[in-house]
Design goal:
Layout: H1 8-18, H2 31-48, H3 52-61, H4 73-83, H5 93-104, H6 117-126, H7 131-145, H8 151-166, H9 180-192, H10 195-210
Helix pairs in contact: 1-3, 2-3, 2-6, 3-5, 3-6, 4-5, 5-6, 7-8, 7-10, 8-9, 8-10
């Protein structure tokens, strides 16, 4: 049976040298987010039989590209991983190529399927589609990046994002059948289809995020 725990020396390296970098990112891409992606990635590794060390490192590096422009953060993150020579202590060049591609492929708006099971795992793990998480992260991102907007402008942005990404016609794609995300996406889409319910969710999280 494959291990579901990454190598202890790799874990020590990641926890001391890599994860602290997430403290500089916005609240939608912070330590809480990367920790959740790691946990979900390891669960999917156990389900699919993928290499646990590779999955763990991919998840840890997947959003480091947020140190640069968000639109290309997946490409930047892949480059950061592939250029980090410290990882050669645990992985060979072929593994690092697959890992770089997995980070590049994790973005929800990608027009094609990830190139390997590792890309599918991190893409799926990154899609925390529980309605509470999606709504809160969207409000957090808007407040952090568009502070000049008023409440109604934030609502319009929130609604457009929900429609463009998560609705029945949205661009999000799930890559591992039978995942918990399938059920949560169906629940999310039911709320999005009802503008009144969606506005109630926006108001709830908007007020919570602005509360002292």
């Amino acid at each position: 049976m494959k291990s579901t725990i990454a190598s202890l020396d790799l874990v020590e390296f990641i926890e001391t040298q890599i994860l602290p970098q997430y403290a500089q990112f916005d609240r939608a891409h912070n330590m809480e987010h990367v920790t959740r992606v790691i946990r979900r990635s390891l669960e999917l590794a156990a389900q699919t039989g993928a290499d646990v060390d590779m999955v763990y490192a991919i998840a840890a590096y997947h959003d480091l590209g947020m140190s640069g422009p968000r639109a290309v953060h997946h490409i930047t993150g892949g480059r950061i991983l592939s250029e980090d020579r410290r990882l050669r202590r645990w992985f060979n060049e072929e593994q690092l190529r697959i890992m770089r591609e997995a980070v590049e492929d994790h973005r929800a708006s990608a027009s094609r399927a990830p190139r390997s099971i590792y890309g599918k795992i991190v893409a799926e793990a990154d899609r925390d589609i529980s309605p509470e998480t999606v709504f809160r992260r969207t409000v957090q991102f808007g407040l952090a990046n568009y502070p000049e907007m008023n409440r109604e402008e934030h609502w319009q942005r929130f609604r457009e994002h929900m429609d463009n990404k998560y609705s029945a016609n949205g661009y999000i794609r799930l890559w591992i059948p039978g995942s918990q995300n399938e059920k949560q996406l169906a629940e999310l889409r039911n709320i999005i289809a009802n503008t009144t319910l969606l506005r109630q969710q926006f108001d709830k999280y908007y007020e919570e995020e602005l509360a002292p």
